[in-house]
Amino acid sequence: MASLLIVNPRSSRVDDRVVARVQAALPPGLELIRTERPGDATGIAREHERAVDAIYVLSGDGTYNEVLNGVTGATPLGFLPGGGTSVLPRALGLGRDPVRAATLVSRGTTRRIGIGRVNGRRFAFSAGIGFDAELVRLIDARGRDTEGRRPSDLAFVRAAFGLLARHRGRLDERLEVVGAGRAAFALVANCEPYTYLGRLPLRVSG
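Request: output the structure for the sequence above.
Response:
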């Protein structure tokens, strides 16, 4: 059976040269499919899962999530860092270099990881309610620049401070967390770190 490589060409660190080098590092007999719009990866993964022995994903964290929500879990997945942050492959120890990550996953062995589910959707590393979710919404609303790049880490930090300033540094405790009481926001983390600012891991646990 062949393997499948799903590529999001609009991911921040993906271009034709990177795709070619990643293909060369992965097993032969690889089928490549590029996404064209948000949500495509879910349908692509669902349609091809039974016909391939592995699915590799060269993209950012959003497309990884799309693939997770398109498969049954029976087919091995390889997450290759192509986004500006790419938290998932870095948290799994694959690093930031997509070619090196492709080499590692093609030579390595499979392992199971736990995933979470919120409102019927799976997530691999974190899900937020309240402040975190609003911050992600603000960043997503900015879209991408003319070259397809998402807002930078600096834009993420500025948005966080802007959101805090809007609330005058005080967030209302509108959530009731079972066993923990009231909270202004909640973050369910499946791994560490929460995210990265450049090369710096941002941890939220003690």
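The mean pLDDT is 84.
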